[in-house]
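Supplementary Note 3. Input sequence used for the single-chain structure prediction.
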Amino acid sequence: MLNSFDSEYPLIIERSEHCISRKMIDEDALKVMRRLLNNGYKAYLVGGGVRDLLLNKRPKDFDIATDATPQKVRALFRNSRIIGRRFPINHVYFKGNKIIEVATFRAVGDVETQEIEKPLPIKKDDTYGNPESDALRRDLTINGLFYDLDTFSIIDYVGGIEDLRNGVIRIIGDPDKRIVEDPVRMIRACRHAARTGFGIDRATYKAICDNAQFIKLSSPSRVSEEFVRELRGGSARASFELMKETRLLKYVSAPLWQAIERDSETWPRLELVLARIDDEFAKGTDISAAVLFLALVMGRIAFDMFESLGVEADGDALAPYWQVCPETLEELDLTHCHEADNDIELPRRQGRRRDKRSASSLLTMINKLFLPFGVSRKDREDMEKILRLRHFLLLHANDKRKLSQFRNNPTAQDAIMLMQLTLEDTRKVLKLRRLLAEPLFTTKGNNSHSPQRRNHRARRGRGRTCADVKKHIKSPIL
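The predicted structure, written as discrete structure tokens, is reproduced below.
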């Protein structure tokens, strides 16, 4: 329960006045904080972990801030590694691929203290500071709260407690300057507003609308990472609605925005896909980034994006891969496909040696659509595999023997998930899941003529396997 406090900062909220208990915090995160405290350093639980605990939610990550430098943290934890160029931090590794992030307090940068007309994005900010300066450098007020394990209290330098109580998403400091310093903060503000159901502060909302074009100053890889977090946050539909209202989506993905403006039916289709993505993550389903990106541009949305990119010649050849409704696949001219009906060739990575052959028209189109997103080369190659296999599965949905080669294939599961997110009729998806899950041969009773039964008898010393029999068969003499 959040109570009202005085307006003076920092606010120190004692243990009796907040709901956070050590039992709610990950045991490995407590170990890291205790070791830092025992060695004379400060150690605070920070960021989204404190926010989620105050909202009675289970945090996904437990991040720690300290006054120890990365080198000193590395000396304390042998199971850690220093990463990052812009601001070095420590990753402490535990069993089960668990990572506890430990960062040194950051200082307020020179860009914030100087009166300049056109602030520039910060490229490097590896100057260390104190808890107050670190709180002021964070993106949102609700993410600027610290939990002190030494006193079991919460420290608030930025008014995050009041915004949590009032349900407000607010950028710390001057929103115009803070957005230009790191434009990715606009995507984070939309995501947290969608996840929590809070309203965006009026000044913050206006700053996002006025500075949406500055998102192009961020590196494509960072934008792609935040974009995937939007899709995996469980509230992708509401988050995309906010990006659409603020016109941020126009600069995050210009082809997708043009497709939405060209056809009034594009946005309702996209909303349906986003709602299905939210439902899958609510069930705990893990969906790869390649499938998430493909789900956004399947069907008519893809062809609208092709048109916005000026692509017309490859439309017929790519139609079998991007078409959503499986019923129309049989009517398409399959001579444009890149593989035969009875075989499918999945591209393989060659490590650091890149394939010297020319890229297929399908991969070329994937690059045109997703390079602006900053999607990695591996994910784009995975997209080609998924689209080819999806087309193959739809064409041979009734051929159990052809489908048997893809049983327990991760790419096949991704292709089926893509169909589940984009097909309105799920009967074919359920049928494919069933066919890929059940064994190719089934035995009824004690059928001694089945291959499984003959192999079992051979292992028991009562007969020979089919392979053993074939070894003794001689070719007829002509």
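The radius of gyration is 28 Å. Strands lie at 11-13, 43-46, 63-66, 80-83, 89-94, 98-104, 145-148, 153-156, 168-169, 199-200.
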